[in-house]
Amino acid sequence: MAFENKFIQQRIEKAEALRAEGINPYSNDSKRNTTIEKYMNVNSDIAEKEEKRDEHRHYIVSGRIKFFRIMGKASFIKIEDESGMLQVYVTRDNLAEGFYNTVFKKLVEVGDIVEVSGFPFVTGKGELSLHCSEFKLLTKAIAPLPEKFHGVTDKEIRYRKRYLDLIMNNEVRKTFQIRSKVISLTRRFFEDKGFLEVETPMMHPIAGGANAKPFVTHHNALGVDRFLRIAPELYLKRLIVGGFEAVFEINRNFRNEGMDATHNPEFTSIEFYWAYKTYKDLIEITKEYFQYLFEHLNLPTLLPYGEMEVNFENLTELPLIESLTTVGGVPAEVVNEKEKIVEFLNSKNITVKPGMNLGQLQGELFDEFVEDKLIDPTFITEYPVEISPLARRDDKNPAITERFELFIAGREIANAFSELNDPIDQYERFKGQGEAKEAGDDEAHEMDEDFIDALSYGMAPTAGQGIGIDRLVMLLTNEHSIRDVLLFPAMKPVHTEERQEEA
RNA sequence: GUCUUGUUAGCUCAGCUGGUAGAGCACGUCACUUUUAAUGAUGUGGCCGAUGGUUCGAAUCCAUCACAGGACACCA
Q1: What is the ipTM of this complex?
Q2: Whole-structure pTM over 0.90, yes or no?
């Protein structure tokens, strides 16, 4: 089964031949004393020297062989480490007697990880290289790498074997470096603002905090089912009740739903809750957060995304109802009348479920005519209460809530509101959800009595927000599939025949 | 979930209306001490995604299935 491929067989034989030569094909005797990036920087002066070399300098560099060019008694190879690629000039006469012909030329190949030492020089074609005086194999690769020019482009291979993708496609590494920076900058930003990072359970007795189908697992010792969390919200709010005034959590949520370019069953979000603040403060901190990210990631404020260009200096606020007419082009006399909205939607060949209330219909108008036109960052505010079950009502206008959603490049990036902290109101809303669940809505919330208990002790007025990190990274890296910003995206199993045999 | 396109050598891809498979890279052998996807010569390499069907004959036509990409629907 394993290793049966003829190319792999061939390379296993080479590994054995190396052992016969007294060379360990999996040596851990690494003496590396610099990275390729540092080597290139430190030796950038060589090009200005008359002799184009400095034999008094000596470096040991390691990396994977990406190119192998033999020209008789001399060779050029290119090795790559995490920091960059370096050309190495290897000659027969600079290595130990016989090594070049019997080992280097015969038993070393593209994909192997090696360590070379020597001095810096610049080739006739002007490339800063390393003149090799000692060559050591560190790790023999028994699987051949994909083709050196086209690399691996098959998305299925790239997602399933991300390590190969990372070896072959440099820009992929950059995407994930940016992702890592986004997360670490996010953490630092909120810590600097006085937020406390917390970790709440991922295994919930009741899956709450969002409308979504949970994954179910089983706890043997307790004999109970547990749900992988769909959102950390209800636990974070318990912490506000407990007296923490600013908390955040960056971690995974799990939703047992479909997969596509913007949905993975597990995804990363940041949720943060801030006592004694309202959604207006959240708008301000969100603006600051984006400014902080752009500054530290050195991103242009005119950010390209696909065909679009997003202007991050043009952040605006817009009430939802107003956006329907100004952005969506919906006639003003339509937007506040149920019948007229249905009529209008029908005239555009959009059918709506019967019995939708005004807020839902306005939401429908927004989705159809406004959302994908919001290219520059736009905080849509004053959401109808009917489509905002967790948000606090506006004190002056009970039809709308203290909420915003942030849209960028035609997509929702963040959702935030002043939190509902009236325990009785919350209880009633849970009850309504319970009835919806009985009626067949398997995404409806379940009653969380402990959460009601918590609110009963009093939660300070609080504003809370969630940002989808994966989608944010997509935006910042100009990627259009969530799978391109997840190191190991969810994939269906492949070996169906084997599975059936085992079963 | 629906529609649609794809799956041929380790990788990237040809293979037309059916006649038992082809290139480049990689790999083997040879030549070559400043190359840049090195070059030149030569050779090895395949159950054409799986299972059925049509046919004298299937990589090619049909059906089902699997996986993947894209679009739409739902959601973050």
Answers
A1: 0.90
A2: yes
